[in-house]
Design goal:
The chain has 235 residues and is mostly helical. The chain is built from 13 helices and no strands.
Length: 235
């Protein structure tokens, strides 16, 4: 199976109506408008393929790049691979989803996330915070640096007001992720969330809303799901 063959397979699956939805979320041409459900059928068939994932991502076609993240063999991804993917993530959602998911599953997620959150480019910073959110949802607490996570929560409190739009959304999501998935830090995340207050983010031409971190965390708490980790962040 080659990237060219997959492009030929998925192109007829696209629709203008779904393409319009994707464009409202920041996706740009080239894009076929293939629904995630259709891409997941191909993922199920291929499972993991490191080389093919790299080739698909290089096509620059949004649908193929998204599929690349689904089939990527995260453990084989190098720092150079991940930096290149982020640099090529011209479709805004890719950095905060595809790149963040794959980075979190790689051996380099933590290091790269700390590098990316310091960037002045809002989409690079967004990818960094999103990677951190993925990491805390996947890794057992014993594998996490809780002291560093406390520092990062404080960092969010200090920086979020001045942070650019995309990064601000991801920072708020990080507070929610820590509060929901890292039980020893739930109380601190709630406190930070209250101090931050409701975060204002321009969500563009979408119906998406920015969750109020304490409210979201308390809902997770009410379900008895605090600290329950995810098997995968890819969706």
């Amino acid at each position: 199976m080659t990237a060219t063959a997959i492009l030929e397979e998925i192109k007829p699956l696209g629709s203008d109506s779904y393409k319009k939805i994707l464009f409202n979320h920041g996706v740009k041409e080239p894009c076929f408008g293939v629904k995630i459900g259709d891409l997941k059928k191909i993922q199920k068939r291929i499972k993991k393929d490191y080389r093919l994932a790299l080739d698909l991502y290089e096509t620059g076609v949004y649908d193929a790049m998204y599929l690349a993240g689904l089939i990527a063999d995260d453990a084989k991804m190098t720092k150079a691979d991940l930096r290149r993917w982020l640099a090529k993530a011209t479709h805004a959602p890719l950095g905060s989803s595809t790149v963040a998911w794959v980075a979190a599953g790689s051996p380099h997620g933590w290091e790269l996330a700390l590098e990316w959150i310091e960037s002045k480019d809002e989409f690079v910073a967004e990818a960094g915070w999103s990677t951190l959110s993925c990491l805390v949802s996947l890794k057992d607490d014993s594998e996490l640096d809780l002291a560093e996570l406390k520092r990062l929560l404080q960092c969010v409190q200090e920086r979020i007001v001045e942070a650019p739009n995309a990064a601000r959304y991801a920072m708020n999501a990080f507070v929610i992720s820590v509060g929901s998935y890292v039980a020893p830090l739930t109380v601190l995340a709630l406190q930070i969330g209250e101090k931050i207050g409701r975060v204002e983010v321009d969500m563009g031409n979408t119906a998406c809303e920015v969750p109020f971190a304490p409210e979201y965390i308390r809902k997770v708490e009410k379900r008895g799901a605090i600290g329950k980790k995810r098997k995968s962040v890819k969706c």
